[in-house]
Design a protein that fits this description.
- This protein is an alpha/beta fold.
- It folds into three domains: about 1-45, no CATH class; about 50-285, TIM Barrel; about 290-320, no CATH class.
- Helices cover about 25% and strands about 25% of the residues.
- It is built from eight helices and 21 strands.
- The protein has an eight-stranded mixed β-sheet.
- β15, α8 and β16 (about 280) form a beta-alpha-beta unit.
- The longest helix is centred in the last third of the chain and has 14 residues, at about 225-235.
- The chain is globular, with a radius of gyration of 20 Å.
- The chain binds iron/sulfur cluster.
- Iron/sulfur cluster binds next to loops.
- Iron/sulfur cluster binds near residues 32 and 33.
Length: about 325
Amino acid sequence: MKEALYYEKRDDGRVKCSLCPHNCLIKEGSVGLCGVRKNEKGTLYTQNYARISSWGMDPIEKKPLYHFYPGSYIFSVGSIGCNFECRFCQNWQIAQCTDVTTMGVMPEELVKWAMERYGNIGIAFTYSEPLVWYEYVLETARLAKEKEFKTAVITNGFINKEPLEQLLPYVDAMNIDVKAYTDSFYKKHTKGRLAPVLETVELASKHCHVEVTNLIIPGLNDAEEETESLADWLAGINPDIPLHITRYFPNYKLDTPPTPLKTLEKAREIALQKLNYVYIGNVLGGSTTFCPNCGKPLVKRNGYVWNGGLKGRRCRDCGEEINIII
Ligand code: SF4
């Protein structure tokens, strides 16, 4: 265990964690809502520091990051814990359960380990929620940057501004889940809130490459007006931010049937009225990048990634500048 950052001690032995907007007040011997920050005798410790539950070399497209070194591989690692309790969690075995077998790997070792992997561009913090693995992610990302390695954070975006600002200089790319565009969805189905997530997208997009994922769940967040509002808001930040509209499948505590394909296609059509790059995830197809100016395919992803429609960061056909890092 390592002493946590971002907390204050109270006279009565409790501690107040200010890493994320839950701002948990934790009594002695207890953990915060994320399950991995524990008050031991008036000191807050991070219990998942240097603990790795899952790792592997993944295609960058799997994060999903479509506009960040397309066709590359990134060493991906996850720990345990999450500050949301989504009923439809896709990684609940490590995000919602903390009694999981993990391996101890210090930041220096992890960077070395990642650098030894052939063809690897960097480290992606993913699988569980990286923001409640904060101290480890911060230290490792700092070291990775020193080695000119790329770092990516795949996250629910639920973090307070100050810790986010401290982390961002060491992050190259983020995929941030905007799980819905209503606060009622967040409160009812995640135990979080919408506004802090939107603030994270806004702030992060000023510092690093950002893509957004929106998992559409039938009957819960699939209203066309909701997709329109989400796209409208995202376009207000930057219409070039890629949006991944993703198909839901039953998981964890939710057994609603999978999202119909026509719902996803309609959502994409709506979002494309405001945004330049909209994809459908968790389905076959829907992953090609088209030039927003001339409509020609720029990058095709069908297992193999073809980026022959690009010339540098421009459309080979019409010369339009594309928000893509290659
Ligand atoms: S990081 Fe964990 S302990 Fe800290 S405020 Fe968030 S949920 Fe609570």
